[in-house]
Amino acid sequence: MGSWRMGMRNASKGTVLISGASIAGPAVAFWLHRYGFTVTVVEKSSGLRGGGYPIDVRGTAVEVARRMGILPQLQQAHIDSRRVTFLDADGSEAAVVHPQAVVGGVEGWDVEVPRGDLAEVLYGAVRDDVEFLFDDSMDALTEHEHGVDVTFRSGGRRTFDLVLGADGLHSRTRELVFGPEQQFHRYLGYCFSIFTMPNTFELSHEVLIWNTPGRAAALYAVGDSDELHAFLNFAHPEPPGEVLRGPEAQRELVAATFADDGWEIPAMVAAMRHANDPFFDTVSQVHLPRWSSGRVALLGDAAYAPSFLTGQGSSLALVGAYMLAGSLADHRDHTAAFAAYERDTRGFVELNQAQVGAGDAALFPTTAEALEKRNRRLRGLTALPPKTGRPAHTALTLPEHTGDRPGNGQWRVGR
Prior knowledge:
By secondary structure, the protein is of the alpha/beta class. The protein has helices spanning about 1-10, 25-35, 60-70, 70-75, 100-105, 115-125, 170-180, 245-255, 265-275, 300-305, 315-330, 335-355, 370-380; strands spanning about 15-20, 40-45, 55, 85, 95, 110-115, 130-135, 140-145, 145-150, 155-160, 160-165, 185-200, 205-210, 215-220, 225-235, 280-285, 290-295, 295-300.
């Protein structure tokens, strides 16, 4: 805490509270600290959340990681999956492709790391410079002329110049400022469960994806680990109701949906029932008419979740963090800064969100015809990775910010 207190005494650009310590939160904290802000991060979990399935850092986000100085660590943690095997309902092989051929990444540039590893690297880059409040969250926000009064779940009360919501798909910040999440969630027609299970399949550096119309399963082998990341995904016409807020009801829905399937599905369902780390959610995007209101702004999944169907959630979080912090460094008041952040970033976000509808080779077809069409396309892919990524990954050229240059002047909160 010593270095944080020293930074607070010397701070000249104001105080910022960030809600969320996963990916977007620590990333924007890193840049804001560099630009001279005093930063506090509040996180409802008791500590960093480790684990999680592998995620990709692609295109423009790789350049953000390079500018942060964390790219070598991410490259060291790179999973280096060597093949993706697609299976039919009976477990027979439908296609084998290189991972980059599926995700549209660039071999030797993009990286794939366990989500927990990325979170650890980001936290390590800011923990000595930023105040972290774990096992706490915001209960209420009250904005006034001189700042935002925040009441915490723990009972504490503090005032900040700005508040940033980086608290995910089910953002508490967004709910407090913009209203209930239902109006901003765009349901994409699927539900999923992820969990870990023993690697009894002896898989190594690879992914198995099993499909039948409307249902899919995947097993991710990160290196030669004795543990697999397991994934069950299924089409569900309407978002499941409130009853599915409970974990037992979630497990029952998944089990019932896959009850008649073969291959290794029964073993996966059994592992899900006994897993101590299952996670269930809908496949949704977040679409907001604007990403800020007054002194509060959103980033990452809280503002523009693209869904895992795009593979761009973590990348958008990193890019959005860089763009938001840079806008606050470049502009003399928060109103202009938030407007510039949205103006310069929204096109990139929307291009990547639109990837859910790109092409007919979707990973999770819902009809037999679409599944066969997808398999034909997969079999036609070269075994070699493509030489260039999809334009959406790299469609934003990162600006240089005035905060990177000395003598950029005093920042003030706009009225």
